[in-house]
Design a protein that fits this description.
Length: 283
DNA sequence: ACCAGCTCCTGCTTGC
DNA sequence: TGCAAGCAGGAGCTGG
């Protein structure tokens, strides 16, 4: 499911419920997600204060007061929901636990935070903060696309000599952190570039357009609370609404939305993933 | 080293 | 209506 805007939406939803709070309970309701959950999960988390919630790429990072960080990845279908039963409650009321509710936290303010993940491609790992930067999942991660480093010259040099397609290069988390299938398609459409173009053919003008398109689409999506398809929900159960702003994603066979283009959106498969684009105006 | 394909898993949609 | 195939927002691993 989640790409950068969805993970950032989750981070913002969890922050008021978790930042500064003590976990009075942490329950792993099965031993594993994609990877085994940390050993002694409950004992290692219970009593810990969450000092900060950060996001790096598509990873959610919970910094704990014992010097460890809980790394969470939502995979394709992971979501969190925040609920309480307090008088004048701020969050949705607690529901009965549901299928695929794999991890449950409870804070010292009586708030319950539940991780649900039908496909179990997500994972949680506990890593000492001193080893976080060097952790094998994080050390090779590329630039944050909403930061200052995202610009034309960066893309030109990052893609120089790469034999792969522009689309595959955009999905490479070692280059740009947090871009996924939807926003890669949307950024290429906005920049007027074909997903099939060889990455190394990106000249400086095209690279500049692409860098701006990536930053624009991600920024707009974060503002919209991400995109909600099928099972993605925000932590408060509401839906993001950026899916209404898709210009090519999932629009195969429909007319290109670029003014005066008149083309038809196509779906092709690249590296096993759908790419949507308009062959008439994306070159 | 880069690159593409396979794989993990469940659930929803599509087509016969 | 039933059933099987195809598809889904990710990314680590394997082998070429």
């Amino acid at each position: 499911m989640p790409e950068l805007p969805e993970v950032e939406t989750v981070r913002r939803g969890l922050e008021p419920a978790l930042a500064g709070r003590v976990l009075v309970r942490a329950e792993a309701r099965r031993p594993d997600l994609r990877f085994p959950l940390p050993e002694n999960f409950s004992a290692r988390l219970q009593g810990r204060r969450v000092e900060a919630l950060r996001r790096r790429a598509k990873y959610l990072l919970l910094d704990l007061d014992d010097g460890h960080t809980l790394i969470c990845h939502l995979g394709m279908s992971g979501s969190f929901r925040v609920e309480d039963d307090l008088p004048g409650r701020f969050h949705h009321a607690r529901t009965r636990l549901q299928a695929h509710d794999h991890v449950v936290f409870e804070t010292d303010r009586g708030v319950r935070i539940t991780y649900n993940d039908p496909r179990r491609f997500g994972f949680m790992l506990l890593v000492p903060q001193t080893e976080l930067e060097e952790h094998k999942l994080l050390r090779g991660i590329g630039i944050e696309p909403l930061g200052n480093e995202m610009n034309g010259p960066f893309l030109v040099s990052a893609f120089a000599g790469r034999a792969t397609s522009l689309k595959a290069a955009l999905l490479d988390q070692g280059v740009i952190a947090g871009l996924g299938n939807i926003y890669a398609c949307e950024a290429l459409f906005r920049a007027g570039l074909s997903p099939r173009r060889s990455a190394r053919t990106l000249g400086s003008a095209r690279a500049g357009r692409l860098a701006a398109a990536i930053a624009d689409v991600l920024r707009e999506a974060v503002e919209a609370g991400g995109s909600s398809l099928r099972d993605h929900a925000r932590t408060d159960g509401e839906l993001g609404y950026f899916q209404h702003s898709f210009r090519v994603y999932d629009r195969a066979g429909q007319p290109c939305l670029r003014e005066g283009c008149g083309g038809t959106v196509r779906r092709i498969v690249q590296n096993g993933r759908s790419s949507f684009f308009c062959p008439a105006c994306q070159r």
